[in-house]
Amino acid sequence: MAVNKNGIVVLGAVFVDIKGFPEDVYIPDGRNAGKVEYVHGGVSRNVVEDIANIELRPTFLGIVDNSALGEEVIHKLQRHKVNTEYMQTVPGGMGTWLAVFDHNGDVAGSISQRPDLTPILTILEEKGDEIISQCDSVVIEVDMDKEIVKKVVLLCEKYNKKLYGVVSNMSIAMERRDFLQKFDCFICNQQEAGMFFSNDYNDKTPDEMQAILADCLKHANISSMVVTMGGQGAVFADKNGLRGFCPARSVQVKDTTGAGDSFCAGVASGLTYGNTLEEAVAIGTRLAASVITSSENVCPRFLPAELGITEQV
């Protein structure tokens, strides 16, 4: 498995996650005793650390603020062997995600404050050719600023690089539908897929969701898509009629935060290094299962071969 200098390049925001866990059954309108944790977060930040944790040496193109916490974000990524040479430090460079969890480990409510990501466009204008030409693939939050997404799409076309999309805000991502026709795969959850295709899929079975997804992709001219369905697993399809389902692994759930991000990391890593879409979804499913059993936002360490990512001839 040959990895270029920049490996998989991930673009997106860094967040500080403030998470509250109740000691007992969560009461929505009551006073709940428990504990509060501060964790480095953000979809793309989590994704890049997950990729690093399977020893694939990715590059992160993001920004942090000029504080001790911002420095710690960079230092932690470096400890996990993420290439941070293109990261920038600017005032207010990080967002905040505040969430309260119920006794089942699910999010009971949350509020997020998104940072200004426009400095990333400056980095792309100055060093985009260098970054993308020396990478294996690109993962980007589709709901980033439109000009950033457009620039990344053009660079990936120029250097013939695979492009994968993740999402943190589907309401914004829906405004990027034309760009998604240029992506190799888009990953989201069942509710987000309903928003994207202007329908309600919450009561659909995996079999029904496969058929719906395959038909939607054909008409929308989107190459491929993976939709997670919580405890049921994930379905996948492409515009040529391929479709399938991967069941979720049976594990004890502690905290679901980061599970979708690790799933995305697994899918993107598998597809980048030669696995089929079905195999890549299985890799994502295993990484997601490893995250939800702890309060960490990212997966533990794996070797690529453990996940079926092997050298491609």
From TrEMBL:
<feature type="domain" description="Carbohydrate kinase PfkB">
    <location>
        <begin position="7"/>
        <end position="295"/>
    </location>
</feature>
<keyword id="KW-0808">Transferase</keyword>
<dbReference type="Pfam" id="PF00294">
    <property type="entry name" value="PfkB"/>
</dbReference>
<dbReference type="GO" id="GO:0016301">
    <property type="term" value="F:kinase activity"/>
</dbReference>
<keyword id="KW-0418">Kinase</keyword>
<protein>
    <submittedName>
        <fullName>Carbohydrate kinase family protein</fullName>
    </submittedName>
</protein>
<dbReference type="InterPro" id="IPR011611">
    <property type="entry name" value="PfkB_dom"/>
</dbReference>
<dbReference type="InterPro" id="IPR029056">
    <property type="entry name" value="Ribokinase-like"/>
</dbReference>
<dbReference type="InterPro" id="IPR002173">
    <property type="entry name" value="Carboh/pur_kinase_PfkB_CS"/>
</dbReference>
